[in-house]
Amino acid sequence: MNNIISWTAEDEAIIATNTDATECKRCAVELGYWKDDYIVYFAKHVDRKAPEINRGYYARVKAMEMFIHQFLERCGTKCQIINLGCGFDTLYWKLKDSTQAVGNFIELDFPSVVAKKSHIIKRNKQLLEKISNEDGEVMIRSGDLHSDGYHLLSCDLRCLSEVVRKLEAGGAGAAPTLLLAECVLVYLRPEAARALLEHLAGAFPRCVLLVYEQCNLGDKFGEVMMRNLSARGCALPGEPHCREPGAQAARLLAAGFETARAWDMDTVWRALPEEDRARVEALEMLDERELLQQLNLHYALSVATRGDLFADLDLNA
User: Which reaction does this chain catalyze (predicted)?
Assistant: First the structure.
């Protein structure tokens, strides 16, 4: 890596949040919250998580899927998905199993995360065969994994020139683009996040950006969340932007997106189909309903768009 940015213990703590999230997802999948045949490759057997954690992850995954499907309904498979800070996300494989496999799929994350994900992919046939071309070819070059239509790239999102170079290496073009950023921007300093957002808004004239991260961190519950993360070595340099959802949407508009909306996850949860909520509520008894509501009030989903094709994306679509 030719970055001027050096790796720190804080970076390692951020990287560790990927392991935590993957284990939480596997727990929820094992309990039947949603279906994911591939999460087992990225997390070994895990201890059972609290019901409010499982339900919170369900709302997160379901909300992201809802907007991903709206995006694909409008542009079909002739599009690209760029997953910023991808971690061990399994979306690529789940889409391959559906009729919604996309033309190009690019994933970016820290080199150590990419190296481990590449290793897991290479040693598991069920993962590898989904990314191989007709000749079964997968290339590893300079720590990056390339195949036809899938690129797993090591990248420091704080370094915009590197992001630009890696996107070019992954074949990012002018096709309609879905940009995913789950718990990513909060770990970037405000100036780095602003530069990244402005570049994405300018580079992709037909795009949807989905951002999932903390919100309302200025109250006492938010302060406890930040103290807990700090105790694990995770600073939140983007915390000043993790205020009310309306401010998060305004930030995306200021970066150059044409439309932007944001909702806390309590609002998202209540907007999910009643039958879906009833199904997952029957999976586990939930004693701490107030705790779940507090958690949901401190995470938000933001949706920003460019191009008329996506201007009407909405939570209740």
Answer: [phosphatase 2A protein]-C-terminal L-leucine + S-adenosyl-L-methionine = [phosphatase 2A protein]-C-terminal L-leucine methyl ester + S-adenosyl-L-homocysteine
- Residue spans of the domains in the chain: they are 26-310
Q: Which helix (H) or strand (E) holds 299?
A: strand 299-306
Cα gap 36→18, rounded to integer Å:
17
On whether 156 is known to bind a ligand per the annotation, the reply is yes
Q: Which residues pair with 306 in a beta bridge?
A: 207
**182 has binding-site annotation:** yes
Q: Give 125-164 pLDDT, tens digit per residue.
A: 999 999 876 565 788 888 899 998 999 999 999 999 999 9
Asked if residue 143 belongs to a known ligand binding site, the reply is no
Q: Name the residue among 205, 223, 209 with its Cα closest to residue 180.
A: 209
β 177-182/80-84 pair status? parallel
HSE (side-chain half, CA atoms, 13 Å) at 314: 4
- What is the pTM (predicted TM-score) of this model? 0.94
CATH level 2 (architecture), domain 26-310: 3-Layer(aba) Sandwich (3.40)
Tokens of 118: 């590449």
